[in-house]
Amino acid sequence: MSLLTNLNGVIAASATVSVLDRGFLYGDNIYEVVRTFQGRHFGLQEHLDRLRQSAAYLYIDVPWSDQHIQAEVERTLQQATWQESYIRIVVSRGTETKISLQPSPGLQPSLLIVVSEISPEPMLSEKGIHLVIGERRRNDRQALSPAAKTGNYLNNILALLEAQQQGAEDALMLNQQGEITEATTSNLWIVREGVVQTPPADVGILKGITRHFLWRILQTHGIPCEEVILKPEDLWTVEEAFLSSSVRLMMPVNKINEYQLPQCPGQLTRFLWNEFLSLMAKEGRSFEKNTASLSI
Question: pTM value?
Fold first, then answer.
């Protein structure tokens, strides 16, 4: 596998952390996943904004500026020998001198950047994905808010494994009120009677960066869209559906439980896919223009 790591500024083919690192011991860390498109990272600032929101939720003081993190991401990318990359930015609370749930005073956070190769050309799946509504519930917002992107993903891992045991590829997770939140690593979108719908943040979701950009596209083109609380029974009349995430971008849904969707991918899904790729290309050109002007 083509992979590079950057641990606290040291770039290498691999890296190791201490067994007393709190991210390793407890999932006591935060992270973001970014991808490149046409060789440029996309949405990095939005991801860094969310990284700091997650840090504040976990009471982690991130000592590096956005400019420093971006520079380290770009320095790592420059050493990659492949075209397009998956970028994972991880901030751990730090490394202890002894095992204790109580964080030691004066802990120094660590910054890990992992860059690995992904397909050079994003493709919209023609097959789609089979989802099941699992019994495992999404973390309650008053326990561990899904709005914070932390390394503690056991809830999602179990939901994914249970979905695969049922012959599906991913799970839709309900909250404690029986409302649909999201899939294990992706936001859910459905289309009913020409209206694009997605669950609101307050049902317990991670507000995806791709979700943010898709919403912007929908509003720009005047396509009817709304955040709406969804129950499982609302899904049996959807015309098309897809998941959104930073690396896959959009994944059409072909089946939910035993309900076969009539369109996969649907016409609106295809339109949004093409518009999203255009937006990514435009943002990349804008970034290069701004970078060039700063270097003059």
Answer: 0.94
